[in-house]
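User: My instructor asked us to take a sequence, write out its structure as tokens, and then describe one feature of it. I'm not sure where to start. Here is the sequence I was given:
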Amino acid sequence: MGFISCENVVKKFGNFVALDHINLEIPQGKIFGFLGPNGAGKTTLIRIINRITLPTEGRVMFNGKELRLSDIERIGYLPEERGLYKKMKVGEQAVYLARLKGLSKSDATRELMKWFQKFGIQPWWNKKVEELSKGMAQKIQFITTVLHKPQLLILDEPFSGFDPINVSLIRDEIIRLKNEGCTIILSTHNMESVEELCDDIALINKARLVITGNVDQIRKEHGHNRVEVCYSPSQDEPSLESVEGLFSVVSTENVKDHLKSILEVAPDVSRRDLLRIVADKTDVISFQPLMPKMNEIFIKLVGESGGATSQSIDDYQKSNPKTL
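Assistant: Let's start with the prediction itself. The structure tokens for your sequence are:
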């Protein structure tokens, strides 16, 4: 059983099914990615795990026991929809949010000062929230989300609106928290972040779980079997040509004084045999397997599961306001 387990979780809003029998295991101390098109059900599942809403059927287990309201103190949640009280001072707002998580005023102030110093935002303590830039406000919300040292951290599009420097800052903090034993759920459309950060993922589409598992394993199982070969052309073989039953040449380009070809390898051909065949034809400079990009796999699996969701909960609520 995972640190977080979703057992046959169903969520209905009227006759709209937002989640359809989701079974999911989230291991402890890992970064777990929630993927899916807009309206697929990711945010609904996050809200159930955070007890903002309850499932229509099924249950969520937290560290071996059914999730209770008191468990929320051990969870940190950064929603995609940002929100701070604009007229409050930054420090007052941060202390207020920290106290909602059980910290005393003195403990909250002390810990916040450490974070403000780490993020280089001490001068903003007595500024009003309405004076903050979007990125600065997101920093404050990230800090207040992790301040109470949650066992489970839920981050919904945490890099949205950040410049590259602050993306790197937040990414480093996420990795540090993971290394300290925090279990992290990351909901994002940024496939580069998934490849870089996530140990495991779940892809949800049209309220159903499409696939879940280890990121590297999924990339191996659902991607193309391709290699990149850099080589110097010979008189007999100016560039590599496809060999039926062994490999096909997907593309070839000139790179300075050599060529680079992408080869689609037949399933039963080992890399060792392929390298020997290519080396007999050309002067090989480098040879490396190409792991498929999560973006390609995401598009492929969403397509195979029926395409993107046609109606979101928000759309349903607008057209059926009395059912929610």
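For the description part of your assignment, you could build on this observation: The mean pLDDT is 89. Try explaining in your own words what that tells you about the chain.
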